[in-house]
Amino acid sequence: LVQHIRSAHQGERYACPQEGCAKNYTNLSHLTRHQQAAHRGMRSVCPHPGCLKAYSNRSHLVQHIRSAHQGERHACTHLGCDKNYTNRSHLTRHLQLAHGTGPLLCADSGTPSSEADELDQADLDGLD
């Protein structure tokens, strides 16, 4: 909730210091991830034959292998909801925002928020 207030209401942003890069982020960890991927060339490559995916973070590679090569999905358990996600955190955000399972609420706007970022349902639909 603190991160939501800083980014949505106080305009706090973390800009990439790399010359010529105009990227900026609401979360310092997102800036760090961007710097590793875009400017330091740190990559973890998928070992599956024919798959050319590479990630700046090893945990993202593990998630890719589970979802793309092992078929792991995380499905919503609410009756009548057919949403499913490749990442458990995306399902958690869906549950919070779509079904009201305990998100943190912004005191100013009443908007549901997570500590990681401020996604709305339209953003979640585009994650898969």
Topology, please?
Layout: H1 2-9, E1 14-15, E2 24-25, H2 28-39, E3 44-45, E4 54-55, H3 58-69, E5 74-75, E6 84-85, H4 88-99, E7 104-105, E8 112-113, H5 121-125
Antiparallel strand pairs: 1-2, 3-4, 5-6, 7-8
Number of strands: 8
Helix-strand makeup class: alpha+beta
Helix content: 25-40%
Radius of gyration: 17 Å
Low-confidence stretches: 115-124
What is the approximate shape?
flat
What is the ordering of alpha helices and beta strands?
Answer: HEEHEEHEEHEEH
Strand content: 5-15%
Count of alpha and pi helical runs: 5
Describe this structure in words.
- There is one protein chain.
- By secondary structure, the chain is of the alpha+beta class.
- It has five helices and eight strands; from the N terminus they run αββαββαββαββα.
- A two-stranded antiparallel ribbon has the order 1-2.
- The chain is flat and about 40 Å long.
- It starts with a helix and ends with a helix.
List its traits.
128 residues, alpha+beta, 8 strands, flat
Compact overview of the structure:
The protein is an alpha+beta fold. The chain is 38% helix and 12% strand.
